[in-house]
Amino acid sequence: xxxxxxxxxxxxxxxxxxxxxxxxxxxxxxxxxxxxxxxxxxxxxxxxxxxxxxxxxxxxxxxxxxxxxxxxxxxxxxxxxxxxxxxxxxxxxxxxxxxxxxxxxxxxxxxxxxxxxxxxxxxxxxxxxxxxxxxxxxxxxxxxxxxxxxxxxxxxxxxxxxxxxxxxxxxxxxxxxxxxxxxxxxxxxxxxxxxxxxxxxxxxxxxxxxxxxxxxxxxxxxxxxxxxxxxxxxxxxxxxxxxxxxxxxxxxxxxxxxxxxxxxxxxxx
Amino acid sequence: xxxxxxxxxxxxxxxxxxxxxxxxxxxxxxxxxxxxxxxxxxxxxxxxxxxxxxxxxxxxxxxxxxxxxxxxxxxxxxxxxxxxxxxxxxxxxxxxxxxxxxxxxxxxxxxxxxxxxxxxxxxxxxxxxxxxxxxxxxxxxxxxxxxxxxxxxxxxxxxxxxxxxxxxxxxxxxxxxxxxxxxxxxxxxxxxxxxxxxxxxxxxxxxxxxxxxxxxxxxxxxxxx
Lengths: 269, 225
Prior knowledge:
The complex is a heterodimer of chains A (269) and B (225). Chain A has 269 residues and is an alpha/beta fold. Chain A has helices spanning 32-42, 59-72, 86-95, 104-108, 111-120, 171-180, 202-211, 225-232, 244-247, 253-262; strands spanning 5-13, 16-21, 24-30, 46-51, 77-80, 99-102, 125-136, 142-144, 154-160, 165-170, 185-190, 216-219, 239-242. In chain A, strand 1 (5-13) and strand 2 form a beta hairpin. With 225 residues, chain B is an alpha/beta fold. In chain B, the strands form three sheets. Chain B has a seven-stranded mixed β-sheet with strand order 2-1-3-4-12-11-10, with helices on both faces. In chain B, strands 5-6-9 form a three-stranded mixed β-sheet. In chain B, helix 1 (13-21) links the parallel strand 1 and strand 2.
């Protein structure tokens, strides 16, 4: 049976792993290669490097980080953040990434998804979607829904530029379009939940996961083992990604997998 | 020396890195004519079956000659599918036909999750367990039920040559082996220690075939071939 994947995200800035709450207030969590090595021993299924510096000059620095992590692990390795062009993607893949994750660049130029899928195969192209659960009111003024509301129309508003810029896109529709354009996986992050440890947005994850036939990686909000069971159950996620819960030794990957296995959720032990 | 064939289907960095890690000497021949000095040949591949049309008649002949000479061959992912007769994904493109059967779309049977009865997604992406219908060199020392990393939408049927099977709605060949031809549908270079073990098993087959072949070669040299 196909296992649910547990993915560790390394948010990297200037060659160091950092992790913030709601995309702000970053704190230092250490050396990316050392963390990757630890996760590999603990049984992580995949690693994502998210370069939060992502300036043009950082391409070489990013390549160095990718190569250092790729040297430590023989697991799928994805890289996102600052992948703006085909050349950025090529540099990341040549440095050792198996997949690149496109976010703002895909929103600005959706053709980039197709270009990269044709060059490297769909399995190498993740489209990352940062979204907020939003309730549309009659005045069309968006308000954040704190809890899933099944009575009204809930829309999932997509944001670009690390959650800073609205896009007028809906996450479900965008996920469908990205799939049609050749994306191999969707990495769906709840901006509201990111770093809060209050649980994944299962409602949004299920809505996107049910709408597409490619794997959906849930991200944002992991705080307890129960949260993972929720996102793999009612959240219909194919994989779950977390950063801070693992970085600071709060929870180990192996303990999490033992917990999920006891809940009859298929994992790689 | 291991020849890692680059026919333009995706990226070879990960395969090369994994082979480096287990001590294999690898090069990428730029023309089919270079293949003759390989002690082992790897046909990798990701993406669409159509990309195997990059393996032109010249390459096909060179690879076939190597296989007929007893040189160990390893196909990975689309490289495995290419060793079959063809694939539903690109019916106009012929496979090498070393293994019987045609690769099929995993989605055709509308696979369902046995546990939740929800439809399974195609492509099949992630870690899945493999079982062994028989003992093979390729899977020596790999525990039954070990998990390896897959990413594919098309799969090869189960045949007498199946060395490992995997279940995803249907049962398909996760690995095949006959004589000196081996292939895996999953990515051993992305499958942690299990994957490295499998690559190492194949490399041992390359090493074992060396003395026999060098004597064949010298016999040929004496015969003036």
